């Protein structure tokens, strides 16, 4: 195999791994218990976090991103005692409602995790971040936040995911 063929194979395998990771999440979550599971237990099941955020009282928040192919982002709290204090799937309408005009970009990132896509609109002098999520019963949606040049929220919206099979008319 050539080096180029190996690179293509590695990329294809990586693309297949994301859906497999998200399919395993419910099992991994069931294996963890707030106040009992340790940081080592979380890392053993979820791996290296995308980011680690400092929180009040010495808590640390581990960000586990399932974008761009998945529909979840998890924030797992680790208390100062080293035990898991919370496990939340953050891509939901309750958290989307917390994103308000004027909010800083970093605050949005801490709330929702890494977006699936970032798009620059140079003529409008705006940046849009997109997150894929599921709307019950089983509709793939995209939540978008637009930022101004000062990295502050201008507006938000939610729309059907144009890349989802059910939204393209095919099955």
Name some characteristics of this structure.
29% helix, alpha+beta, 4-stranded antiparallel sheet, Beta-lactamase Inhibitory Protein, Chain:B, domain 1, 8 strands
Q: In a few lines, what is going on in this structure?
A:
This protein has 171 residues and is of the alpha+beta class.
Give a structural overview:
It is a single chain. The chain is α+β, with helices and mostly antiparallel strands. The chain contains four helices and eight strands; from the N terminus they run H-H-E-E-E-E-H-H-E-E-E-E. The strands form two sheets. A four-stranded antiparallel beta sheet has the order 1-2-3-4, with helices on one face. Strands 5-6-7-8 form a four-stranded antiparallel beta sheet, with no helix packed on it. A hairpin with a 5-residue loop joins strand 1 (51-54) and strand 2 (60-65). The radius of gyration is 18 Å and the shape is globular. It starts with a helix and ends in an 11-residue tail after the last strand.
């Amino acid at each position: 195999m050539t080096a180029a063929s190996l690179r293509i194979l590695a990329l294809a395998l990586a693309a297949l791994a994301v859906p497999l990771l998200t399919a395993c999440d419910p099992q991994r979550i069931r294996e963890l218990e707030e106040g009992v599971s340790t940081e080592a237990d979380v890392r053993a099941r979820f791996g290296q976090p995308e980011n680690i955020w400092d929180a009040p009282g010495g808590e640390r928040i581990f960000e586990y991103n399932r974008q761009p192919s998945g529909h979840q982002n998890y924030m797992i709290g680790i208390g100062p005692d080293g035990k898991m204090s919370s496990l939340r799937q953050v891509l939901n309408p309750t958290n989307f409602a917390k994103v308000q005009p004027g909010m800083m970009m970093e605050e949005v990132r801490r709330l929702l995790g890494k977006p699936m896509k970032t798009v620059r609109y140079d003529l409008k002098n705006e940046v849009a971040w997109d997150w894929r999520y599921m709307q019950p019963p089983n509709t793939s949606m995209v939540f978008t936040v637009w930022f101004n040049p000062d990295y502050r929220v201008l507006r938000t919206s939610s729309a059907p995911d144009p890349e989802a099979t059910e939204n393209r008319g095919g099955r």
